[in-house]
Design goal:
Bound molecules: asparagine
CATH superfamily of the largest domain: L-asparaginase, N-terminal domain
Strand content: 15-25%
Largest sheet: 8 strands, mixed
CATH architecture of the largest domain: 3-Layer(aba) Sandwich
Protein name: asparaginase
Structural class: alpha/beta
Domain Asparaginase/glutaminase C-terminal: 213-326
Helix content: 25-40%
Family: Belongs to the asparaginase 1 family.
CATH topology of the largest domain: Rossmann fold
Enzyme class: hydrolase
Number of helices: 9
Pfam family, one: Asparaginase
Order of helices and strands: EEEHEHEHEHEEEEEEEHEHEHEHH
Number of strands: 16
Number of domains: 2
Length: 340
């Protein structure tokens, strides 16, 4: 008989393992593992062996942080040699941020890492957790894609390309600018997943700390004083959510404020408010003016990927120039390089 693959499950919290209480769903220690023990399908002959490591405390993913990302990455690094693949059980609210952050922190990943969760707890009727976890385990063992992936509602995505699009539907995630990697239907269909041999080399991980970053969503009538105040705070980077392909109001006051901030060494990244498509500051005069003011194009990265990338890059000892360059460089498949 073929030896079974071994999968490590890092259980951080989220709805998947929650229990109903009089104040709504709450994470309860031991509850998820107990529920799984009573589900024979997880022990089917075709399923891999798995070990669940429950974090303490279990959290709602609203409480995730760069410090917690570092703990998670170190945990996986410590167990890297003992397992064939890794699953992270996580709340959906910030799942795309964690998937993006881990993609950057893991600097030499050659085994599958799949992050998943659910909209309804595993123990509840009509839960999506059973399918999400069963498929994640099955895929990690039998269809490994050696990168940080996110599995939800029968689709395996590149983690750093995802965003949460639905607050209460089962199709909670989309990958607006990159195709689905695998589709779980009657068969597991490979769409854009790159198959590579799983090798047991050492996993190198990078440092990640909390950095001073802000996001500003442009809208008609935005008072520039608000932006000015934000840029006066001890800020390292600002993500500017602009219109369409990266356009902003053609107001000299705005451009002057941005130019001064970027001259002071604040990184200003231009991301579109649109879900799909890419920033191209050469497209319109309004966008061109931003690039003249020192604003960096976020290309087709999700806001989650940009935030994670900024936390990661600013945690390395890199010069402003190098960080600026790496922001627009494809590090882990998070952006479509302009010549692709
Ligand atoms: N579906 C979920 O997991 C939502 C939950 N609030 C969380 O993100 O932890």
């Amino acid at each position: 008989m073929k030896e079974k693959k071994r999968i490590y499950i890092a259980y951080t919290g989220g709805t998947i393992g929650m229990k109903p209480s009089k104040n709504g769903f709450i994470p309860v220690a031991g509850y998820l593992s107990e529920t799984i023990k009573n589900m024979p399908e997880f022990y089917h002959d075709d399923m891999p062996e798995f070990e669940i490591h429950e974090y303490e405390p279990l959290i709602d993913s609203a409480d995730i942080s760069p410090e917690a990302w570092q703990v998670l990455a170190t945990d996986i690094q410590d167990r890297y040699h003992d397992f064939d693949g890794f699953i992270i059980l996580h709340g959906t609210d910030t799942m795309s941020y964690t998937a993006s952050a881990l993609s950057f922190i893991f600097e030499s990943l050659s085994k599958p890492v799949i992050i998943t969760g659910s909209q309804i707890p595993l123990s509840q009727l009509r839960s999506d957790a059973r399918a999400n976890l069963l498929n994640s385990l099955f895929i990690a063992a039998h269809h490994p894609i050696n990168e940080v992936c996110l599995f939800f509602n029968n689709q395996l995505f590149r983690g750093n390309r995802t965003t949460k699009q639905h607050a209460d539907g089962f199709s909670a995630f989309v990958s607006p600018n990159y195709p689905v990697l695998l589709e779980a239907g009657i068969d597991i269909k490979n769409i854009a997943g790159k198959k590579q041999r799983t090798v047991n080399t050492r996993l190198t991980i990078g440092k990640i700390d909390k950095q001073s970053i802000a996001i500003l969503h442009l809208f008609p009538g935005l008072d520039w004083q608000v932006l000015d105040n934000l840029l006066k705070s001890p800020l390292q980077a600002l993500v500017l959510l602009t219109y369409g392909v990266g356009n902003a109001q053609q107001d000299p006051e705005l451009l002057k404020t941005l130019k001064e901030a970027s001259d002071r060494g604040i990184l200003i990244v231009n991301c579109s408010q649109c879900l799909k498509g890419s920033v191209n500051m050469g497209g319109y005069a309004t966008g061109h003016a931003l690039s003249e003011a020192g604003v960096i194009g976020g290309i087709d990265m999700t806001t989650e990927a940009v935030i994670a990338k900024l936390h990661y890059l600013l945690s390395q000892s890199l010069s402003y120039k190098v960080v600026k360059e790496l922001l627009t460089t494809d590090l882990r498949g998070e952006l479509t390089a302009l010549n692709d």
